[in-house]
Amino acid sequence: MKELQPKVALRLMAGQEANAVATVLAASHPSATVEYYPAYISVEAPGQLRVQISQIGEALGSDYDVTRFLVILSSYVGTINVYDDSVVLTAA
Hints:
92 residues, alpha+beta, Phenol Hydroxylase P2 Protein, four-stranded antiparallel sheet, 3 helices, 30% helix, globular
């Protein structure tokens, strides 16, 4: 029997920035599941999610930083590590 890897998840407040984050994460994490709701976007993946801040800025066509990302992050599941250039969620 195949053992399932624990999942990590992000919940982002809906809007232009969250749409960009979801698009980038879907492209960089093929096993991720993205679900859109009226008030938020949910992104789940097995094992780990790495949000590369520079990729979000490229998708938005403007400067972007970790602080702006944290403003739209409403909740998460997993262990979070925040760096200058990325945010990493890892399954416990």
